[in-house]
Amino acid sequence: MAVEDQLDALVAQWHEELPGVEVGVMAEVARMLHVARLLGERLSANAAEHGLQLGEGDVLFTLRRAGAPYRLSPTELAGSTLVTTGTMTNRLDKLESRGLVRRLPNPHDRRGLAVELTAEGKRLVDRVVPEHVANEREMLSVLSEREREQLSRLMRKLLAGLEAG
């Protein structure tokens, strides 16, 4: 049974049990959660092919898109990737042990550190990004360009509402 059929069946059962409650929203949220899980699995599998966890790839991608000299503070990295500084420290430890990033004294703050993408890290990112984009394009290939634009508008609206609430 397809996921949407299962969810429609569950909603139908709820309608039988609680006819006065609009339970259709349960299926809408469940579909979004299921899509998010499947997207996450595909992205994680692609990262694993390069010996990375998804969050580690986020750090490398963030440093690369920052532009030369590919350097940010740990706090900037944590904010950009939406994780705690503790989580960022763990990611940086792993990436540094692999030679993909290095920690340096922060030239703008003598008390702080800067994290810099190494040449090896940059080569890895430059090799992985085209594959990552192709993987994402493939995942969304069931949608037309117009549908993707509609989805983007709706997701922006939903995110704004959830973040404001």
SSE layout:
Blueprint: H1 3-17, H2 24-48, H3 54-65, E1 71-72, H4 74-81, H5 85-97, E2 101-105, E3 113-117, H6 119-139, H7 145-164
Antiparallel strand pairs: 1-3, 2-3
Helix pairs in contact: 1-2, 2-6, 3-6, 4-5
Give structural attributes.
165 residues, mainly alpha, Arc Repressor Mutant, subunit A, 3-stranded antiparallel β-sheet, 69% helix, elongated
Any overview of this molecule?
With 165 residues, this protein is mainly alpha-helical. The chain folds into two domains: 1-48; 56-164, Orthogonal Bundle (Arc Repressor Mutant, subunit A), CATH 1.10.10. It is built from seven helices and three strands; from the N terminus they run αααβααββαα. A three-stranded antiparallel β-sheet has the order 1-3-2. β2 and β3 form a beta hairpin. The longest helix is centred in the first third of the chain and has 25 residues, at 24-48. It is elongated, with a radius of gyration of 21 Å. The model has no long low-confidence stretch (mean pLDDT 92).
Q: What overall form do the CA principal axes indicate?
A: elongated
CATH superfamily of the largest domain: Winged helix-like DNA-binding domain superfamily/Winged helix DNA-binding domain
Q: Quick check: average pLDDT?
A: 92
- What percentage of residues falls in helices of 4 or more residues? 55-70%
What is the strand tally? 3
Give the helices and strands as they follow along the chain.
Answer: HHHEHHEEHH
Query: Which class of the largest domain in CATH terms?
Result: Mainly Alpha
